[in-house]
Amino acid sequence: MKNELKEYAEQINWxxxxxxxxxxxxxxxxHDNRKLTISLSAPGVNPEAFHIFVKEDKLTIHSFLPETIxxxxxxxxxTPIPMFQRIFDIPAFxxxxxxEAVYDEGQIHVHLPFRTEDQTPRRIDIQFS
Length: 129
Description:
The structure is a single chain. By secondary structure, this protein is of the alpha+beta class. The chain has a domain of 90 residues: Immunoglobulin-like (Sandwich), CATH 2.60.40. 18% of the residues lie in helices and 36% in strands. The chain contains 2 helices and 7 strands. The strands form 2 sheets. It has a 4-stranded antiparallel beta sheet with strand order 1-2-7-6, with no helix packed on it. The protein has a 3-stranded antiparallel beta sheet with strand order 3-4-5, with no helix packed on it. The chain is elongated, with a radius of gyration of 21 Å.
């Protein structure tokens, strides 16, 4: 009986998301002296369901409903249904070549390290001819 209730609750949750419900992915953005960190928490969602892309100055994070929803819908031509999507602008002071994502204790942490080169303006002296 317990497993049947769990399966029923999961189906209701999937239907809630399909019909415009809110997914439970929580986002927190923090920073320190070296990096920005975007933390994602989605209880019950496999971290492999999340996909993270960097293109130009945009960071895109999205996930799809679990594959089992396709069996639930019993559709021959299924299209993955986005459960979560968020696009972040990458600031100029972030080294986009070294962005990384780490899964730890039920959360995905996306680390955006700051550029290491000196960010102070360089003074240009005026030369006289």
